[in-house]
């Protein structure tokens, strides 16, 4: 059975939100690495987009099974770790580097997991 066109548009919107958030996070981290003060705001905007994406995905999933619930919780915790990295950037600490690396490694691990 084919999905309605509105579901396709909604999925595309969520995908664009995710890609733009990741691009902003990457741009903000590279810019902040070179001590450009504006880029921490770009990193924060990307983090906010990723948090919104995770929340939309959590609330739009209808009757998730145990595995889906677990994956959604893990993704939300990882995204909240990016919020910790944003706080660390504004605080002036270098903890944000470790948090972003943990986010990237766990996300990569979850991508290839069955």
- Report the principal-axis shape: globular
| Sheet with most strands | none
- Structural class assignment: mainly alpha
Give helix and strand order, one letter per element, not per position: HHHH
Report Rg: 15 Å
DSSP summary, beta strand count: 0
Quote the average pLDDT. Answer: 89
Show unreliable segments.
none
Could you tell me how far the N terminus lies from the C terminus, measured between alpha carbons in angstroms?
A: 25 Å
Number of domains: 1
Q: Helix count, per DSSP?
A: 4
Measured as a percent range, the helix fraction is: over 70%
* Residues in β-strands, percent: under 5%
Question: Which tags fit this structure?
Answer:
114 residues; mainly alpha; 0% strand; globular
What topology emerges from the helices and strands here?
Layout: H1 5-33, H2 39-60, H3 66-91, H4 95-111
């Amino acid at each position: 059975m084919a999905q309605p066109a509105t579901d396709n548009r909604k999925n595309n919107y969520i995908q664009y939100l995710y890609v733009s958030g990741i691009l902003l996070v990457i741009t903000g981290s590279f810019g902040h690495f070179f001590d450009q003060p504006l880029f921490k705001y770009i990193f924060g905007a990307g983090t906010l987009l990723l948090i919104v994406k995770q929340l939309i995905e959590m609330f739009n999933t209808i009757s998730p099974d145990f595995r889906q619930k677990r994956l959604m919780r893990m993704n939300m915790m990882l995204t909240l770790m990016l919020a910790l990295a944003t706080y660390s950037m504004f605080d002036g600490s270098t903890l944000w580097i470790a948090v972003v690396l943990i986010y990237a490694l766990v996300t990569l691990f979850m991508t290839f997991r069955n």
